[in-house]
Amino acid sequence: MGKNNFIVLIALIVALGGFLMGFDASVISGVNKFVELEFGLSKLQLGFAVASLTLTATLAMMLAGPISDRIGRKRVLSYAALLYFISAVCSALAPTYETLVIARMIGGLGVGASLIIAPMYIAEISPPKMRGRMVSFNQLNIVLGISVAFFTNYLILQLADSEAAWAQSLKFEEYNWRWMLGLEALPAILYFFALFIVPRSPRWLAMKGRYDEALEIMKKASDEAEARKIIESVKHSVDSGDHDKKVPIKELFKPALRLVLAIGLVVGILQQITGINSVFFYAPMIFEQSGIGTNASFSQAILVGVINLVFTLIAIALIDKLGRKPLLVIGVAGIALSMFLLSYGFKQATYTLTSESIEQNMPEEFDLIMINPLLDQTYYDDVSFKMALRETLGEETAKTYESELITSGVTMNSMLILVAILAFVAFFAVSIGPVMWVLFSELFPNRIRGLAISFVGLVNSAVSYLVQQFFPWELETIGSSFTFLIYGVFAALGLIFILLKLPETKGKSLEELEAQLVKQDG
Question: What is the pTM of this model?
Answer without folding.
Answer: 0.79
